[in-house]
Amino acid sequence: MASASSSRSVTQKTSLKRNADHLEEVSASTSTTKVAKVFPIFSKPQASDFQWAKPLGRSGTCLHGVNLAPKLHAKVAAFDLDGCLIESSFGKKQDPSTFKWWRPIVPNKLKSLYEEGYTIVIFTNQALRGDKAIDNWKKKIPYIASALSEVPFHLYAATAKNGYRKPMPGMWYALEALFREDGVTIDSDKSFFVGDAAGRAGDFASTDRKLALNIGIPFSTPEEYFLGLPAAPYKLPGFNVSTLPTNLPSYTPSSTPLVPTNGAQEIVLFAGMPSLGKTSFFKKHFEPAGYIHVNQDTLKSRDKCIKRVEQVMKEGRSCVVDNTNRDQVTRKYYIDLSQRHRVPIR
């Protein structure tokens, strides 16, 4: 998985001219209908069917909103917000509710995608500190929705530095869960993500391109997607999991058995983000040896997981705690339990 700092570079012979005047000319020539560039201040948002849903995550740090009633289709057209669909979030002091499309072609293109059977989704990172800042930002989104009165869409906004924040795939996982509830599977080959944080010269970051790499869907910059301009060279600094060798053993040290041959009782504590293969690893290596599978997705709460491990210990059996177990506080529950029962944990 590409992290907030991944390393990769692409070069190409074609040079990309990103002059603002040139981009405006290209966008104007590709837009079929006249669209207002700047939407003025309103004392109240124009009539909009946009609604905020329940925030996601333990602390509710990922905002989720819905415009109209989007039908879920296997093809997903996903976009960043600032610098991709709109030029910047909104005006600051004088025009707090004014926004400008990144280029006039944007709303018509979104409408066309919806008519072509795409589910429209917006993934955005927002640096919002405190409830007041979050509430003020949330009040601005209906202005965009009212300007897209014929375009149903989902919006996810990560407001904290956790698994939801791009390039981490938490917002995409939330979307996949929503699709599963509706019995729909996302077609990754026919879906795509567009964003301006692409690792190009002058880009402030590369998080959008890394998100696309992490979730495995095609990526384009706004210039490439909306204006049809050639791809620009880019660099993704830092760690990139795709650079790792693929012929390594699945666990180390491989010189000793993964599962004790003497059948000694133990607790095995998995740790890692969702979809890393933890459950598959359990089924391949531990299930055949009779280990009990303890999983919060199945038991629904941490307390039930702890009680289940306690029960397994009293029965003299071994178990695997197959959860994310991402912090020391969570892991300590099981470490303390193992010490009470004098059973090793790893």
UniProtKB/TrEMBL annotation:
Residues 1-14 have a biased composition (Polar residues). One of its GO terms (biological process) is DNA repair. Residues 1-23 are annotated as: Disordered. It comes from the Eukaryota. Coiled coil: none annotated. One of its GO terms (molecular function) is ATP-dependent polydeoxyribonucleotide 5'-hydroxyl-kinase activity. Pfam families: AAA_33, PNK3P. This is Uncharacterized protein.
